[in-house]
Amino acid sequence: MVQIGAFWFSYHLFGFLLTVVIVPAQVERIVGDENKGTGLSLATVWAGIVSLFLGIVLGKWNDRFTSPYGRRRPWILAGTLLTCLSTLLLRPPFALYAIGYVILQSSMLVASVPFNGLVADITSASPNPSVASSAFSAILGALNLAAYLAGALLGIATDGLGFSGTFAVISGIHVVGTLVTTFSADEERLGKPTLGYERIEDQEDERDDIGQDQARVEIESGETDVQHNLEPGGYSQVSSSRASPFPPRPTPRQSEDPHQQPRPNSNRNRFQQFYAFWQDNLRPLVQHRNFRLVFISRLLFQLGVFTVQQFLQYWVADCVDTKLPSTQAVSLALLPLLIVSPIGAAAVARGKFAQRRKPIIYASASAMALACVLMLGTTTFTGALAASTIFGIGYGPFLSVEFALLMDVLPDAQNAARDISLWHTALVLPQVLATPVIGWARDFFQMLGDPAHLDIHCLGYKVVYSTCLGYFIAGAWVTFLIFGVE
Q: How far out from the chain centre does Cα 346 lie?
């Protein structure tokens, strides 16, 4: 399991340094201190919009993909390579930077969505899927936190390495982790499940065979009584005196000119195909109540976590009394969180609550909400370290059960990548919803709270972390509404 999770470690190490340390610092250098909240919003919102739709599409494509090297592994490797190459685009001017960030986030999805599908394949193929999902969730959560801890330690050296040097280091680690996972995953042993679209194609082939055999019998016996009823759009429906077990398929009407065939309404057909595609992909949210609630609860929790992480560097620089550079200060402030979180995750995985999801989530939400309350008032670096510790007490256990809760309510193991990619959009949506709104709110209320107006210290950040407090409370309430899960 740990070898399979090597990708997860390198992926989150890369993502942590990117979102918490590098991107905020780069955006501030490009757009300036006064507009850094808005700049960060604009840099992330377009990446979020593209990733929102791309993740769903990738999940379905990957479920249908076949190759001699497996369904998941080629995508994981290709996505990692594209991710590393995309870092070359993160440079001024701001328009190029925003485009590069979109490409980088899309490349990360190309790798992460198939990896989630691989984990679902492994757990569903085990003799006891519930126990396997709990074990995998705990291990991946621990690796996630270990990656954050390594990222924080590496972040301290960011100023010395420079952005290019930091990207080179984390790209190398990411490639090594991906290679360990792809060479360790034995997809051939898991087998290939029969997918829904394959069953439909088999039924269509059977219908064709029966229809052809029936037509051959009718012609040979001379008992045919066929009429062509023309339908709008240039199609004809064939009716026969002998009943068929399947409804007849429409056949194209032959034109008088053999070189010119009437063409159906292609625009209408494309719209119907587009509508059917998204209807099929979003069906789990509509038809499965528990899956929908797990999606909403994850969205609310990730809105809080993502907002805390995204604005942490700016909060430390603007509101906390420290003489350290912001990149070093935020990395040091995160160390208590990242040390405590794995301990909490390990304790939950081995404790009597290992198979119980809801109590762990309630306790985690309470701790993360308390940390937000502390961040509303503290101005000392010691207070920031205390808030980080309390947040870690909740964050580690939450990560240890998040994936297990999903596996408890997964609608269809045969379309695991599709459903998990839909669940994954709850991680992407905060880029579309949280950062743009909160980024602009941060800039506006910071200006409103300066001494020339309301004279409230760090008013913009008080608004930011009050909003996070609401996210965590709402997430716990939605979790309470999930039926059939302890």
A: 24
